[in-house]
Amino acid sequence: MIKQYLEWLNHEDEELESVGGFAIDSFPTKASKKPLTVVYPESVDVDNVNTKRVMIDFDGTIHKYSEGWKDGTVYDEPIPGAKQFIDQLKNNDFEVVVFTSRLSVSSLGQDAANEQKEMIEDWLDEYDIVVDGVTAEKLPAVAYVDDRAVEFDGVWNSELLSRIKKRVDG
Question: How far is CA 162 from CA 156, 159, 167, 168, in A?
Fold first, then answer.
C-alpha cells in the first residue's frame, strides 16, 4: 500500500503543488483522489523538536464557538481563563501553537484558508492572546489541548469506544 501511495503522489505531483499543500493523511479512497492538505505546512527538524511545545485547538478551546461554524467567522469572545492560561504557558517558556481545521485547504480552498488564518490572527491580537503560530498541522508537542480529544491510555478496548460514542450521544 505504501508503494501505491508513493506512486500516486509522484503521479499527482502537479495537482498537489496547485493547491499549495502536501499529503498528510492515509492513502486516498477511489472516490477522492485528493489527499488532505493544509495551508501552512511546516518542516520539522526531528532531531531538534521543541520539547516544550503545547498545541492548543482554537474553536471550543480558546474561541467559545457557541454557535458552531455559523458563517465561518470568529464571532465569540475567548473562553474565560484561556488568555491567562496561555500567558502562564508562555511565562514558563512553553512554545504555544494554535491548531485548527479552519485552515484545511482541501475543505475550503487556499484563498479561504488564508482568510481564516488572517481572521484568527486578528482575533488573537484583539484579545491580546500571544501565541507562536497558527497552523492546521499536528506538530510534535509535549501536549495537545483539544475540546474533542479522547485520551488514549494505551489500551484499545470497549471503554475507549464508549468514550468516543459518548461524544456523539452527549
Answer: 11, 5, 9, 10
Higher pLDDT, 118 or 14: 118
Report the C-alpha gap between 30 and 11 in whole angstroms: 15
Which residues 6+ apart lie within 8 Å of 71 measured at CB? none
d(CA 27, CA 128): 40
Distance CA 85, CA 155 (A): 31
pTM of the model: 0.72
Q: Where are the alpha helices (DSSP H) in 67-157?
A: 82-91, 105-108, 110-126
Map out the domains of the chain with their CATH numbers: 1-37 (no CATH), 53-145 (3.40.50.1000)
Residue 65's closest CA among 76, 55, 73, 81?
76
Give, in order, the Cα–Cα distances in Å from 90 to each of 125, 143, 170: 16, 14, 34
Task: Give yes or no for a contact between 164 and 150, defined as CB atoms under 8 angstroms apart.
Answer: yes
pLDDT tens digits for 81-109? 999 999 999 999 999 999 999 998 888 88
